[in-house]
C-alpha cells in the first residue's frame, strides 16, 4: 500500500484581515512565496488539533477553529510525495505574531487582496468559499470576542 501524507492550511482571520506568511528562502519547497499557515499532521493527531498546533508553532498566536472549508489532493514535488490537504477557516484569538524560522515576513490582508495574490493560488478555492460564507453573516459580524 502506498503511503500518503496529510497536510493542513489555516486561513486565520481577524478584524485586521487574513494572515499570510512569506516562506523562508531556506525552505526546500516554494521558498520566498506567500502562503497561509501550513503544516503536516503528526502521528496520532487529529486535524483540528494539528492545525491549532501549527498556528501556534509558526506564528506564536492563539486561534480557534471555525470550520474546515476545503480538501484537496496534490503531489508535493513528485509522485513519491502524495498529499491530502485540508484547509481550515480559523479565528484569531490573541497574541503577537512571532514568526518561526519557516517564514521571513507576514501581513494581514483583506480576503480580496489574498485572492489577487498569485502566490496564494493554491488557497483560492478556500478563500473564495470563506468569502461566500461571509456573505451570509450579519453586516455587523466581527471576529473580536
> In total, how many beta strands?
7
- Overall pLDDT level: 91
What gyration radius follows from the Cα positions, in whole Å? Answer: 15 Å
| Helix and strand element order | EEEEHEEEHH
Structural class: alpha+beta
CATH topology: Nucleoside Triphosphate Pyrophosphohydrolase
Helicity level: 10-25%
Helix count from the secondary structure assignment: 3
Number of domains: 1
Hey, roughly how much beta strand do the residues contain? 35-45%
CATH-assigned homologous superfamily? Nucleoside Triphosphate Pyrophosphohydrolase
Shape label: globular
CATH architecture title: Alpha-Beta Complex
| CATH structural class | Alpha Beta
Low-confidence stretches: none
Rounded to the nearest angstrom, the distance between the terminal CA atoms is 46 Å
Largest beta sheet, briefly?
A: 7 strands, mixed
What does this molecule look like?
With about 140 residues, the chain is an alpha+beta fold. The chain has a single domain (about 5-135), classed as Nucleoside Triphosphate Pyrophosphohydrolase (Alpha-Beta Complex). The chain is about 20% helix and about 40% strand. It is built from 3 helices and 7 strands; from the N terminus they run E-E-E-E-H-E-E-E-H-H. Strands 1, 2, 3, 4, 5, 6 and 7 form a 7-stranded mixed β-sheet that branches. Strand 1 and strand 2 (about 15-25) form a beta hairpin. The model has no long low-confidence stretch (mean pLDDT about 90).
Amino acid at each position: 500500500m502506498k503511503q500518503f501524507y496529510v497536510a493542513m492550511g489555516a486561513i486565520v482571520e481577524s478584524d485586521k484581515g487574513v494572515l499570510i506568511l512569506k516562506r523562508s528562502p531556506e525552505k526546500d519547497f516554494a521558498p520566498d512565496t506567500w502562503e497561509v499557515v501550513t503544516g503536516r499532521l503528526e502521528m496520532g493527531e487529529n486535524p483540528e488539533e494539528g492545525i491549532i498546533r501549527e498556528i501556534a508553532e509558526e506564528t506564536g498566536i492563539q486561534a480557534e477553529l471555525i470550520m474546515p472549508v476545503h480538501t484537496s489532493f496534490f503531489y508535493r514535488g513528485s509522485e513519491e510525495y502524495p498529499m491530502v490537504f485540508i484547509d481550515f477557516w480559523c479565528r484569531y484569538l490573541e497574541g503577537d505574531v512571532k514568526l518561526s524560522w519557516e517564514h521571513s515576513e507576514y501581513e494581514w490582508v483583506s480576503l480580496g487582496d489574498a485572492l489577487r495574490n498569485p502566490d496564494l493560488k493554491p488557497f483560492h478555492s478556500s478563500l473564495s468559499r470563506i468569502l461566500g460564507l461571509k456573505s451570509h453573516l450579519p453586516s455587523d459580524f466581527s471576529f473580536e470576542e
